[in-house]
Design a protein that fits this description.
heterodimer; A: 113 residues; 4-stranded antiparallel beta sheet; 0% helix; B: 111 residues; mainly beta
């Protein structure tokens, strides 16, 4: 595998379900990110991890819970979501620090019914 | 407040018809301006990073330039395969490694 991978690519879940999104980067980076992309809106940063430590929680509701067990893996645990949470969830990675480009995975298309 | 505004929202070109996309920003302490390409249903693909006013970078038919207030992505003699959404993002000193994205420009190139 190369680059940034995400699984699953598509997910349909009910409002009472619990599911997890997985991201893995093969680029030797030490920063990882979760973004939400909704139709006709700019990419919205959710969480930032630098060297496995969460350094940013962009006022995200507690029904989204991130986990970063090591610098190559990132999870987003989902529970009791709302229909408005339906979106494309993107994972990215970069070298930590300013001025470094972020590389994105293909995303998980989430639909909450 | 840090802001990134991209224009136009959508652009339709004929194959071979050159044009430019604009990204204007208001941020203090710019540390990088990034251009990405995004195809439908896929993640953004990194294109360029520009760090200081006057800097230019090129890749195939694309050329990115930067001033103190805006960046342009020039597309020379586009082909249908250049059709995509082009995203601009900035990084600022006080934001650390966070990126602030614009809403993007949807480019359609017809043959």
């Amino acid at each position: 595998e190369t680059g940034v991978t995400q699984t699953p690519r598509h997910l349909v879940m009910g409002m009472t379900n619990k599911k997890s999104l997985k991201c893995e980067q093969h680029l030797g980076h030490n920063a990882m990110y979760w973004y939400k992309q909704s139709a006709k809106k700019p990419l919205e940063l959710m969480f930032v991890y630098n060297f496995k430590e969460q350094t940013e929680n962009n006022s995200v509701p507690s029904r989204f819970s991130p986990e970063c067990p090591n610098s190559s893996h990132l999870f987003l645990h989902l529970h009791t979501l709302q229909p408005e949470d339906s979106a494309l969830y993107l994972c990215a990675s970069s070298h930590a620090g300013v001025g470094n480009e972020q590389y994105f995975g293909p995303g998980t298309r989430l639909t909450v019914t | 407040e840090d802001q990134v505004t991209q224009s136009p929202e959508a652009l339709r070109l004929q194959e071979g018809e050159s044009s430019s996309l604009n990204c204007s920003y208001t941020v203090s302490g710019l540390r990088g301006l990034f251009w990405y390409r995004q195809d439908p249903g896929k993640g953004p693909e990194f294109l360029f990073t520009l760090y200081s006013a006057g800097e230019e970078k090129e890749k195939e038919r694309l050329k990115a330039t930067l001033t103190k207030k805006e960046s342009f992505l020039h597309i020379t003699a586009p082909k249908p395969e250049d059709s995509a959404t082009y995203l601009c993002a900035v990084q600022a000193e006080k934001l650390g490694n966070k990126l602030v994205f614009g809403a993007g420009t949807i480019l359609r190139v017809k043959s």
